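[agent] plan:
  1. take the single chain provided in the ticket
  2. run structure prediction with default settings
  3. attach structure tokens to the ticket
  4. add a short note for the reviewer (M.T.)
[agent] executing step 1
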Amino acid sequence: MIELNFPKRTSGKHRADIKNSDLYKFYKKNMPKVESLSGGMTSGSYDIKPKEYSNILKDINEGITDLIVLENFEFILPFRLGILSMKQKTIEYKLDKDGNLNTKNLSVNHKATRDLWSKDEEAKNNKIIIFHTNDHTNNVRMSYWWSKKKAYVQGISAYYFVPCRTLKRKTAKILKDPDNKLLFFEIPNKIKRLKYGS
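[agent] step 2 finished; step 3 output follows
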């Protein structure tokens, strides 16, 4: 039986090394100068406040997200950092050697499990867990896919893409909307290759 604990939400285990405030400082430092009508150089319309800068970044990121999720767009990251897109994979239900459902690749439905435990004491004591079955997408799981095949950055294999909570919720809302009939490139399940001589 799998033991499942529900810790209180914290600030998150994935902390950003570079934040909007750092980007804004870099922008201010490298802000382009334009010639003033009264003579001399000025920052002009490029000189914006931190809040406006943050809103611009938010709009850009939301626009890119909409393209990736709604238009199946492959976003080529700058500086040869690879390609970010959405992929889909059919969920496979398998049994282990004891005949129990192998839940290794299934996602826990925390809300449904909490609701069950609050109503059913026996289910709570036996640690009964409810998993996402993705019925709304025909057992297909969608996820962000960072392709590093065309990336030319040393040590990039040590990094992976983790969408922030806001992006996860926005994407989930789009995918759960019954009016959105979305299809993405399929991630093939691993194929067992026969060894020579077998």
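[agent] step 4 note for reviewer: The mean pLDDT is 79.
[agent] ticket updated
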